[in-house]
Amino acid sequence: MVEPAPATSGTVDISPAGEDGAEGGGILGDLDADYGDARDCPMETAVSADGTVIAYERYGSGPPVVVIGGGLNDRAMFTPLSTIMSERFTVYTYDRRGRGDSGEGDPGRWTIDREIEDLAAILDAVGEPSHVFANCTGGMIAVLAAAGGLPMLRLGLYEPPYWSSPTTAEQVSTLRRLIDEDRREEVVTLFSRDIVGFLDDESIEKFKTHPAWAAFQTMTRSTYYDALINRDHLALPYDALHRIGVPTLVMRGDEGQRVIHDACARIAEEVPGAELVTMHGYDHLFDQKAGAPLLMEFFAR
Asked: What gap in Å lies between CA 175 and CA 10, rounded to an integer?
C-alpha cells in the first residue's frame, strides 16, 4: 500500500517489482502487444490557437485530470494510468503536437508557448478547471501554464528534467536532418540515448522488442520540439515557480539523473506550499502503477 505524501515532503518506498518478480507498471510495463489498439475510447479533437488540431480521449467519470506526456509519449502510453485513475476521475490524455493523431504545426515557428496553447485548448475542451499531471518535459510546459493562470485545480509533476545536459547545436542540426530524411530509428536512438540520455544501448534494444517501438517511430517529428525544450528551458524558471498558485506535488525517483533529482527538490522549495515525494527504486521512466495511487490521493484532497 502506498502511504500518502506528508504536507511538505516525503519518501515512498516501493519495490519496482513484486516479490514474485512480476513486471512493474512502468511507462511501458503494462502495455501489451495490443498497444496501438489498447483503448476503448473515441478520439476527440481540440484546436490550438495557431490552428493545430490536438487529439485527445477521455476515460471514466469524476473530477477531471489532464495528462501531459514527455518525449516520445503519446496518449496511448498512459493507458495503465488512465485506467486506474478512471475509477475516481475523468482522465483526459492527449497527443502533444507532432505525435499520434495531433497535427505538427510549423516547426519553424515553434516556441514552448505553442504547447502551452495546446494545453489551454484541452483545458477549454474539458470545460471546467482540471487537475493536471505532467511527465518529464510535459512538466516544463505545465509549470509555465500554471504560472500563467490556466484553469488548474492541482498540479502533479514527475521529474521535469531541469538542470540536465542541454541539447547541442550539432544535435539539433543532426536531428532535423534525420527527421527530414525520414530515418526514424536513427532519430529515436539519437533523441533517447544522446540528447536526453535516458536510455543506453541495452535499454534501446529492449525497447525494440516492445510494440511501442513502432509508435516511437511515428513520433519522430515531435522529438525536434522536445530537443528545443531540452536546449532552451533547462534553467529553473524561478519567477514562474513563485507564481504557481495551485497545490503542487513534485515526484521523483532516486535511480535517475542526480541533477534532475536535485532540481525536483528545488522546485518543491520554490513553489509555495509544494510537496515532494521520492519513490525509491525508480528511475526517470514514470511507473504508472506506483504513481497512480499517489496522484489519486493528492487530487482527491
From this structure: 39
